[in-house]
Amino acid sequence: MKVLAIDTSSIVATCAILDDDKLIGEYILNHKRTHSEKIMPIIKELLESCELDVKDIDCFAASIGPGSFTGLRIGVSTIKALAHATEKKVIKVPTIDALAYNILFHDGLIVPMMDARRDRVYTGIYRWVNGELKIIKKQDVLEVDKLIDILSEYNDCIVFNGDGTKVYKEKIEKRLNNIKFAPKSVNITRASSVAELAMEKLKNGEEESYFKLIPEYMKKSQAERQLEKKIEREKSNG
What we know:
Layout: E1 2-7, E2 13-19, E3 22-29, H1 35-49, E4 59-63, H2 69-86, E5 89-93, H3 95-101, E6 109-117, E7 120-129, E8 132-143, H4 144-151, E9 158-161, H5 164-175, E10 179-181, H6 191-203, H7 222-236
Parallel strand pairs: 1-4, 4-5, 6-9, 9-10
Antiparallel strand pairs: 1-2, 2-3, 6-7, 7-8
Helix pairs in contact: 1-2, 3-6
């Protein structure tokens, strides 16, 4: 059973192909946010390098967010197009779940953080239990101070990963003890983690039609916020 997974939720463009218990190949490009130009060539190159045709893929998976609005739209649209062309099912994987999956078998809490700007992060709280990644707090958008308040109630060693750790590392270090920050190789989104979680969902029969696949933004876009402010100003001006 072969799963092709992609993640375009951040500046990273990444694609992986997983065949049951074997990772066949993975492509990671962490350079400029030009997913509309690069994700399809990346998929094509990976398939060719693995000597596979897109029709050989049994299921397609996408990281559905949160993250970059444009990046998520590109990634989800790409997976929907591939699934439509091959008449295959799709699997959606929450971005923060996949980011947490990068940290294998840590004996404590795992807290991914993606910068959501204005002192907020996309985050969640996870723990490995008997070889399975358990969700303690599902992905959400929180103020950094609120997240730290929540984490201060735990006595476990906490490992952080994601681009939000670079932005808020100093604040975290000032307020929390017994913490670690992930190395660079697992500090970014990886399609192999998306594929691993997708394979688990596939085995549990959680695949669905590509018609239902949509991004999970978790906050309003800048354009939506600006429109709301404009409407409010117009109402106040009467």
